[in-house]
Amino acid sequence: MDISIGFLREESVRVKDQSGTKTSKERYRSLCKTEDSIPLFSQDWWLDMVCGEHSWDVKIIESEGEIIAAWPIYIKRKWGFVGIVRPPFTPYLGCWIKYPTGQDDIMRMDFEIEVYSKLIATLPKFDHFSLAFDYDFHNWCPFYWQGFKQTIKYSYVIEDIGNWEQVLKRFSKTNRQRVKKGQQNMTVKYDLPPEEFYNFHVDVLRKIGRKIKYSFELFKRIHDAALAHGCGRVLYAVDANNKIHAAVFDIRDEHFAYSIFGVFDRECNASGASTYLSFEAIKYASQFVNRYDLGWTMNAPLGHAKRHEGAVLMPFHNISKNNSMLLKVRSFSSNKPFS
Which terms are listed as keywords in the entry (predicted)? Predict the structure, then answer.
């Protein structure tokens, strides 16, 4: 379906600049340095860390020489198929749009339709597509018109974290008791070295017969880059013998803190360390933001645990499409055709 409303000229859609000038990716890197509204997970430095410098691209739309829309994408190749998917440890990766001033609701929706339609048209050929869009994305009509599918999923977010007493009151009774127990038994420390954090996670998984699914090199890249950009920190809880019971690595942007990595030793569950550390992480994050994102899940036990920390449901759109018949068949059996 060809959508053309007239806000943008056809020649304004640019995938690569002309020979001798900067590529779209180079121009996007420059934009990230000057445009504060680009989300953390769409920042070039974040994509370099989680995707690898050469495994992501960006599609841009320009109007009168100015970038007014950008869509970074992660391209993953598997079994000879090409997928456009969510990068590791990246909650969402959607389109950034700079809206013209003075738009009413009708003009804004028309503008979105044209921008999204043009961005979709610039996508490279793919066999599988699955992306989560951020909480501010609401208009998926252009994707529907192009044969994409949509699923609502949910993150669990703790709001108004500046008032610690109210946050604790929203915890379940059991979790409030666990926080109290943790306060009596544990000490929260900061800045566990990445090697120790990773080894702790490996050891915790080994105890329950599982293996870690990410490499130390990936974790260290994310850890070091987040610290360098002043938006991440490790917190961990230890007992009187300095034994680690739980650890978290959180990052933040201007609006949310995100629990990206969380690990607790089930053998130490009676100490209350995991719940106490979560509460202390929320308190720490409240210095910078007012909302703490515990992450998304559609798993019933995990959802139960997050709700008992006083989190509310935050819906977001997951957009998907399979162009490969083989992957369509596989999706019926595994529901994860490109994982």
Answer: Transferase
CB 123 within 8 A of CB 59: yes
Give the SS3 label for residue 169.
helix
Q: Quick one: how far is CA 58 from the chain centroid? A: 17
Sign of CA dihedral 73, 313, 246, 287: positive
Percentage of residues of the chain with pLDDT beyond 90: 86
Cα separation values, 298 from 25, 156, 305, 314, 315, Å: 34, 10, 12, 12, 11
As a whole number of angstroms, the distance between CA 159 and CA 202 comes to 32
The string of pLDDT tens digits covering residues 241-256 is: 999 999 999 999 999 9
Q: What is the pTM of this model?
A: 0.88
pLDDT in tens, 265-305: 999 999 999 999 999 999 999 999 999 999 999 999 999 99
Question: What are the structural domains, with CATH classification, of the chain?
Answer: 10-153+316-334 (3.40.630.30), 161-289 (3.40.630.30)
Contact criterion met (CB below 8 Å) for 266 and 255: no
